[in-house]
Amino acid sequence: MPNPTAAMLVIGDEILSGRTRDSNMHHLAGRLTEHGIDLVEARVVADRAEAITEAARALSVAYDHVFTSGGIGPTHDDITADCIAAAGDAAIDVREDARAILQAHYDARGSELNEARLRMARIPDGAVLIENPVSAAPGFTLGNIHVMAGVPKIFEAMLAGLLPRLKGGAPMQSRQIRVDRGEGDIAGPLSEVARAHPEISVGSYPFTTEDGFGVNVVIRGSDPAALDAAMEKLRGHFPEGRE
Amino acid sequence: MPNPTAAMLVIGDEILSGRTRDSNMHHLAGRLTEHGIDLVEARVVADRAEAITEAARALSVAYDHVFTSGGIGPTHDDITADCIAAAGDAAIDVREDARAILQAHYDARGSELNEARLRMARIPDGAVLIENPVSAAPGFTLGNIHVMAGVPKIFEAMLAGLLPRLKGGAPMQSRQIRVDRGEGDIAGPLSEVARAHPEISVGSYPFTTEDGFGVNVVIRGSDPAALDAAMEKLRGHFPEGRE
Fold first, then answer.
1. Where among A134, A165, A196 does a domain terminate?
2. In terms of domains, do B109 and B142 share one?
3. For residue A31, what pLDDT is reported?
4. Domain that holds residue B222
5. Which residue, A8, A73, A10, is CA-closest to A46?
6. DSSP character string of B122-142
7. Contact between residue B135 and residue B153 where contact means Cβ atoms under 8 Å apart
8. How far is A139 from chain B (nearest CA, A)?
9. CA–CA separation, A43 vs B8, rounded Å?
10. Contact state of A26 with B32 under an 8 Å Cβ cutoff
11. Is A181 domain-assigned?
């Protein structure tokens, strides 16, 4: 059975303006690979309602899971929850379970659960909360869309809590061999190996160092025996390769 | 007149598997902001022909410019040029101008322009070449799609050569003020400033340090006078703020 598929939707003007460099995509990619869920596509959109809703809807139809990051804080540009509710045709309002979590959090700190903060308790009907062990305000899962915070520490903590709930497939594994030749010199053999093992992805990643250049050849797949067989062929083609 | 709009299309399994962390998106975002082109969306897709062609076509229709990175090397998984040709309904084959560039490059190094490397001379009919000062193999512009390499050093060099050809608008500028309070405490005033200055984007970026927490408030826009006026209001709301 093929692995479940997933897309990521990163929400935030700050990524597209170059102010902030996204790190959640890279983190999610690694965790999903370990969990046996294939990340197939990622999109970054600005803090505009129509863009968020349309992308969420399109990705939700196309993939088994959609993971979003960003736009669930207390300020005017935090509109993700309402957009996901719209994408899922769900009603949304302040929900008592989320309000109770926030109330307890701010009470414990002597802070006020003011109107702005209360926006973070807006959760679509039918959604399941995702715990936020860092700053309390929860994420949520609505249908196959998992809504999480943009701050990396919070995104990572939410994902750690969420992933065990999701059924994974066979974890993708990889093997690597480094060949100190030009990519154009090894393209023929690589192509042969890729053709012989259609169940495996064969990637080549050229690099330069101060001393010269080379290629890291990476093969990926969920069947260890197939990976071993392909690796054997690569060793035959590149006896000088380093693993 | 509003600034030209743009999307980025990142092509590569290695980003989605978590093996490689993309850096071209962040670089492009910064350069486009300086040049007065608004990056509105970004997508990352795998090395699959249908995914690349469909995304390129959709983005090309929706925005003034599309910038792609990745998939133009000599190996079997480098299929971007053919996919962009398909998206633009252009024929594609080895083109003499590109072949001459590669021939000169490999002749100078005593390397062979073999069949694999010759694939890098496949350029769609009607495309304009983008110079590659690092490793010779050119990118190209077909219609409003600019096709560049994935290796960051090459991507950045190609972009530096390309950007002066593209008409930019008013460069986006930003101002920043740091407020050592919780985001929920300043959301009200921020919302007021955002409403009063619809031509400006008002973003808030919470952070934590070892000593506590705070928010960086960033306003962005292309009209310096409007930015100054909004900044004055922020100073009134947050007299303790640091710029």
1. A165
2. yes
3. 96
4. 174-237
5. A10
6. EEETTPEEE--TTTS--EEEE
7. no
8. 17
9. 10
10. no
11. yes
* DSSP-assigned beta bridge partners for residue A21: none
Contact residues on chain B for A151, CB-CB shorter than 8 A: 206
The CATH code of the domain that includes A216 is 3.30.70.600
- pLDDT, tens digit, for every residue of B125-135? 999 999 999 99
Beta pairing class for B139-142 and B128-130: antiparallel
Asked if B208's CB is within 8 angstroms of A20's CB, the reply is: no
Q: CA–CA separation, A197 vs A191, rounded Å?
A: 10
Is position B243 within any domain? no
Report yes or no: B7 and B41 within 8 Å, Cβ to Cβ: yes
> Which residues are CB-contacts of B147 (< 8 A; sequence separation ≥ 6)?
B68, B72, B80, B81, B84, B130, B139, B140, B141
What global pTM score does this model have?
A: 0.93
Predicted local confidence at residue B241, as pLDDT: 92
Domain count, chain A: 2
Q: Do A77 and B14 touch (CB under 8 A)?
A: no
Cα–Cα dist B145/B123, whole Å: 13
Q: Do A16 and B205 touch (CB under 8 A)?
A: no
Please give the structure tokens belonging to residue A194: 């890729």
pLDDT band, very low/low/confident/very high, at A209 (cuts 50, 70, 90): confident
